[in-house]
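[step 3/7] fold_predict: job queued, chain A
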Amino acid sequence: MAEADFYQPIKERLEDLLAATGRRFHLEITARKGLSEKLKAGIPDGREIAFAFLKKRPDLFGFLEGQYDNDLVTVEVKEEATKLEDIYQAKLYKEVFGARYGFLITTAAIPEDIKRLCKGNPDIVHSCADSIYRFLAIGQFDKEKGRFAEWFEENPFEQDQYWK
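[step 4/7] structure written:
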């Protein structure tokens, strides 16, 4: 199966997890087509300029409604996240849009080498603008069970501070 075959099931499972946070949100598949008018309207002013500099866009993109502004969500999907470039592609989307929530989702197990590399050099998955309220998480989506099987470094949906 191709990477694109997993966009919809990953989107649906992320929507379940986002709904459990109690915040209103909008998430859509953006890899194949442009952004919907609803998504465009939800991007905070000044952030949409990033599209002028990118040849590609995140596989999934969306926002959570915030008290003062919307918090952006970027999601990059890979069949296997075995290269440093995979992490940096997900991090690029998160940083260039100023997203609060960034995800790299792989349909294969997260390699031990990647975990060790990221633990040894935390700057790989963290951005200078990150705080205890922002993250880039790497998740493994179990395609047979249709759910997330593993998160690195931690499951962000079990951390209340991220969703306030």
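[step 5/7] annotate
The first strand starts at residue 25 and ends at 29.
Helices lie at 7-19, 37-42, 84-97, 112-120.
exit 0
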